[in-house]
Amino acid sequence: MTTPGSAAAGPRGQAAGPVGPAALRRHNLGLLLAALREGPASRAALAARTGLTRATVASLLDPLVADGVLAEVTAAPSGVGRPARPVSFAPGSPVALGISVEVDGLVGCAVGLDGRLTGLRRLPRDHRDLSAEAVAAGAGEFAAALAADLAAGRAMAGAGRRVLGTGLALPVLLSGPAMDPLVVRAPNLPALTGARPAAAFTGAFPGPLVAGNEATFGALAHTDVAPDLVYVSADVGIGGGLVVDGGVWRGARGFAGEIGHVVVDREGPPCGCGGRGCVEQYAGRTALLRAAGTSDLDALERALTSGDPRARDAVHRAGSALGVGLASVVNVVDLPVVVLGGTLARLVDHLLPAVREELTQRCMGHPPDRVVASRHHRTATVRGAAEAVLAEVLTDPDRLRTPA
């Protein structure tokens, strides 16, 4: 089991220093598979993209064609001579599972090697009063059921989809070594505090397990937006992640990206983290609904549409606090793109004016080039969890070969 780190979380993470023939072959095959994720391509085109020879491309890809992981696409003739036969991921190629343990439910999906999401489902389940063992057991059963449906073709067209591994997203703060992280804070699921997911969860899920913070995985789902970005997402609270050179940067102990706990007012309301005036106390869903006097997001949107002054003031206050917090982050890390997810994406049109005003005023050098809403909505976390598994597959593509 690993957690996503600066090297493991993105496809660009590669080993440094001299490598032997086997490691070089894995490295080159990983390059080819990453190139194929951009779309079908002929062997000659892949050679041009990666700098490998056409013979090397063929020797690396042909075994995966024979195994049914890749398929040759019939191409229409485009001139004199034998037409090129583009290679793509086969319809029945393996997938990675993404499972998100939320406070009040489980969300799961599968993501194929081509990046397509399928089999999305949600199961209501209140985790607040459950033990770590009970949370693990329920999540494992949920993942196993999804894997069985994938194998039988009930979750998508076609059958026989093999699961490469499971990415498990948890609404907790993890610290320590990647192979055995410790849950150091779980304010909404207190029974998980002090647990080690490697012990509590390993064995319950199909394939190797990759565990991480939900917002970290949410950030990983957006590496196609830009190779360097700040991701911030709101649900009950505020989470975030930093993407640097195509991979999520966790920091030395795994705490990087806790944007919800950037202080915007030293005398502000108390926060569950022990501080005061954190971004979360203004822009988190719970705080925002309370300030607006609405029961849920649907009611808040109706109030905003009707011009309710309390709702508009609450959203403006949330946008200002978020902008102040993001300006502090951008001033430190100088990342050019901000992606807003979760509740923030849903309310983006109402939040953006205040967010941009604060960024423009407070960023020392230049405000972010773009502030955009996540297009993944509530699927960002599970998509990113599955992508964390696929990123590891790109560093060890032998996992794609059919087991004997």
How is this structure best described in words?
This protein is of the alpha/beta class and 404 residues long. The protein folds into 3 domains: 21-89, Arc Repressor Mutant, subunit A (Orthogonal Bundle); 95-219 and 380-400, ATPase, nucleotide binding domain (Nucleotidyltransferase, domain 5, 2-Layer Sandwich); 226-375, 2-Layer Sandwich (Nucleotidyltransferase, domain 5), CATH 3.30.420.40. It contains 13 helices and 14 strands. It has helices spanning 21-36, 43-50, 54-66, 132-152, 197-201, 214-220, 280-283, 285-292, 297-305, 309-333, 343-346, 348-362, 380-395, and strands spanning 70-72, 87-89, 95-102, 105-112, 117-124, 163-170, 173-175, 182-185, 209-213, 229-234, 238-244, 247-249, 337-342, 370-373. The strands form 4 sheets. It has a 5-stranded mixed β-sheet, with helices on both faces. Strands 12-11-10-13-14 form a 5-stranded mixed β-sheet, sandwiched between helices. Strand 10 and strand 11 form a beta hairpin. Helix 10 (309-333) packs across helix 12. It is globular and about 70 Å long.
